[in-house]
Amino acid sequence: MRQRKNLDVSSTDSKTNIPKSSKSNKFTHPLLKKVFFLCLFVRFVNAFLVQTYFNPDEHWQALEVAHRISFGYGHLTWEWEKGIRSYLHPVIFAGLYKVLAFFHLDKPWFMIRTPRLLQSIFSAFGDLYLFRLSQEIFGDRVAKFALFAQLTNWFMFFCITRTLSNSLETVLTVVSLYYWPCIRPSASKISRGSRKWGLATAALACAIRPTSAITWIYIGLLELCLTRDKLKFVLLEVIPIGTLILGLTFLVDRWMYGTWVLVPLNFLKFNFLSAGGDYYGTHVWHWYFTQGFTVMVFTFLPFSLAGIFKSKQWKLSGLIAWCLAIYSLLGHKEFRFVLPVLPIALMFSGYWLATIGGPDKSTGRAKRSPSSHDRCSGKLQLAVLFLAVSNIPMAFYMSMVHQRGTEDVMNYLSVEANSGKVKSVLFFTPCHATPYYSTLHRNLPMRFLDCTPSDVKGALDESDQFLVDPAGFATEFAKNWSIPSHIVLFDFQEKLLKDFLALHNFEEIKRFFHAHFKVDRELQASVAVYTLKGQ
């Protein structure tokens, strides 16, 4: 049988003497089940605790589309008109909605919470596979601490159970990495079909989110360099599996769009060749290195850097550097774009934590003196306490407090609409600032301010016009409106529209806290709901 080049078959890490996985110390299958159910429990709790608004795509590019598929109404943004989004991701949640409708459970509570609960199941598999990947590369001790890092990191807690395509992409990335021989220290432990599973999962990640190809170009080239059967890899695995997965995706999009649409090509043209994403803002080239990714890793950062240099696992650390570098070439940058490599950075944190209190590195012996063991044990406890105290409160605040008003207002309106108290809604807010029909779940007239990119450079969309002059825009808008039963707006614009609201006989009926500090606009401290007097 052909052997792979440069195999590392040592039983311990030569630098730290941390035992690597073996048949004698490897976690057993029943214990892996316990790990999975622990992750599942944590992610279920995680999903219930996430009650804030992070990114419009969580609702507008996933749940809103799924709601339209399942119930026949819901708003499709301009991206769907241009064919730069695949239906593969929303179809998952459309299936969930169909199940809820079949059992007559499509009520506000279930419509709001079950999508994140479904995503939490996917996330638990991602946690499990990070545990298994860490176990295979570094050993059992590192796997425990990698899981600790994954479950306590504030941004992972904040983002991974949301219904963003990036969240599922992250799960698929971790699962796929586990099956790639080029990532393992020894390919001899992997079955022949392992790489095929890795390829299939990677192709699925690319189908859901085309930019995932950035990750798999790196891994694919690495595998191509290390494998001896290069032609077999390309001709009998990459091409057939990639064609099968992407072909099925094209069929789903053909069915949903009603015509043949090459989503990856359209996505590439808009986001890379024409820099269309820049319409939504740009950042300096080094933003991921100095702000974005560093904030995501947070207090785990020094532990991750130490783990990278200590472990000398340059293939995985190279993947992090590669993704950050390529995404840095794009003008438009967001935290969620680099979410797939966050678990890898956290795994390196776990590696460094595992070295604290591990075998004696200076002598290479596993035994320590009692005083030395106590000192290392104290350092480890202090490090774990520091990471937990610095991340868990942050996770809770960002998930339960910061920017929760726009979620709360739609949850409120969905209950009111279910009771027949809402006839129509107008959103005098920046576009896509709240969930929409997927939360309201009533086919009522609603109107938000459009922000479709214009072909005319420098032209202001409705949302921008409103933010520049709220009173002037509202006055003009009201000349041709069908007067709504409810108006939703932030407190900042509310102050400028007091006279307008009074003139049109609107009064405040509900107010929701939103944020303590501003993000990228003026402070939006609260969200107010106004209704026609006497209604």
Automatic annotation (TrEMBL):
Family: Belongs to the glycosyltransferase 22 family.
A UniProt-annotated Pfam family: Glyco_transf_22
UniProt keyword list: Endoplasmic reticulum, Glycosyltransferase, Membrane, Transferase, Transmembrane, Transmembrane helix
Protein name, per record: Mannosyltransferase
Predominant place of localization: endoplasmic reticulum
Region entry Disordered, spans: 1-23
Top enzyme class: transferase
Localization per record: Endoplasmic reticulum membrane
Gene that encodes it: LOC107024085
EC id: 2.4.1.-
Regions that span the bilayer: 35-54, 87-105, 154-179, 199-221, 233-252, 288-309, 316-332, 338-359, 380-400
Biased composition (Polar residues): 8-23
Topology relative to the membrane: Multi-pass membrane protein
GO MF annotations, alphabetized: glycosyltransferase activity
